[in-house]
User: What shape does this take?
Amino acid sequence: MPAIKILPVEIRNKIAAGEVIERPASVVKELMENSIDAQSTNIRVEVLRGGKGLIKVTDNGSGMGREDALLCLERHATSKLSSADDLFSIRTMGFRGEALPSIASVSRMSLVTGLKDAPSGVFVEAHAGEVKDVRDFPGKGTSVEIRDLFFNTPARKKFLKSDRTELFHIVDWVTREALAHWDIAFTLFTEKQETMSIPRASGPRERILQIYGREFVEELLEVHVHSPGLTLAAFVTRGEHFRSSKNHQFIFINRRPVKDQIISHAVYQAYEGLLPHDTHPVFFLFMDIDPGKIDVNVHPTKREVRFENKELIHRFVSSSLREEIRKERSHYAAPFLEPSPHFPQRPFPGSGVNPPSSEYKESLVRGRGISDNIDLLYQSSLPFLYLGDTFIAVAGKGGLTLIDHHAAHERILYENFLKGMNLNSHPLLFPRQIKLSHKEYVLLLESKDTLRGMGMELDDFGHDTLVVRSLPEALEEADLRGILSDIAAALGEGLRPFIQLKEVLAARIACHSSVRGKEILHQEEFHHLLLRLENTETPDQCPHGRPTRIFISLDELKRMFKRK
Ligand code: ADP
Ligand code: MG
Assistant: This one.
């Protein structure tokens, strides 16, 4: 007897389901994509207990006839592909004919579907992929209901996370599909409550606005580029509104949400030199690529694509974005060789000397150099030199110190905030409404009490909007939308304790209010910065772990010049 046997169909289906259906959110994704392929304009998703109790997706699309309603549960049954050549002209979300049989094999499924002009629709019920009932049933469009997901694969079921976590994965998928398909209306019901309601939009910008709110969109730079067989519509961080997490990064290729290292790398490269360490740009990239130039059949869940020419794609994304980002920043991204502000070698406040005169201070405020006439009682200063607009070189005792003044300032502010963080709440004269993504909204509301302890009073305004009623003073001028996003990201990573959140907040405030790269420090300010840095607990690192200063000793210099 041969040792090898062909596996029975139930086992084959379970194995395939293992690849395609990892968790309730994968079911939601596959069902929504089927609805999208069926030209629906309205998709409604309902879930109970993070999808463990129920997942139901209803659409107003083409529907299926009776025969198709049964065929669709068969493995490798699809209406989207008829020859191998078609694999390179795919415009639909699905094409592998795997999703429905995979889902059906690990759940109890019922399906109601009807063609638009047919007198009646059909109802099909299947348990573990086996059809139990088929009968006429009124209906147009399609509605698929999944109960008891993984009831017959206990190992998979055991790996499911809490209802809340599974729900977040579902929200993520509804968000991704809604972003990619802005011309379709989406609604999500959780525990019978409407939690997301996104009407049809005219384009990606409006869709981003619907999901994340106006303040969020206004921080985004819009870039459109066409080249033969390649189109890019990008919405990326403008100015300095970087985030502490990668939560708002999306890539869509031919409207398919994908993960792609090459394209992500291209975006980061476009920000080279502008992106502070450990911060991340927000990006939404909508790319259209000739389907003949990509392979979408490389991943069972179709989350990845392969490019015929990846260097070309990388260059296209990176250079298109870089140019626009630079244009935007050109007014303060001073070129390295621009003459640095010239200051006469001024005395330097040693210990116990008089504070600077008010005239001196005034001249600093006005941003001028220091007039030689002002009589100052300072000791001779350490000479310092600006290298570009971020680094300062100081010739000190025994060597050369290079300082990143932005990082140094961040460290000082961060510790100040942590030590004496004034978390006293200041009521806002005009409470601010902030629209958030659904996930951010839920996370922040859940931690409302902790946030109150930090001086942030938030109220629920419904529709993923919070009303901010009071704030710690330090935050009043800050980019509130960005701060809330960062806190939500920290909460999403499971940082809950007060102290951890306080650190997130302190780092954020420090980053926001520290000296911006474009600001040039004057001698006195610079000296003050050095003293304060020296007095911090960790003077050599900024709150994100970057160095604030690097010392090169004379000995090292000698070695570099081969004099030692
Ligand atoms: P694929 O999407 O890769 O073709 P599926 O298993 O997801 O494979 O679906 C099988 C087939 O069932 C589809 O090709 C389509 O013809 C039909 N179908 C599935 N869902 C719907 C729907 N919501 N509306 C209309 N037809 C559908
Ligand atoms: Mg499908």
Notes: The first helix runs from residue 9 to 20.
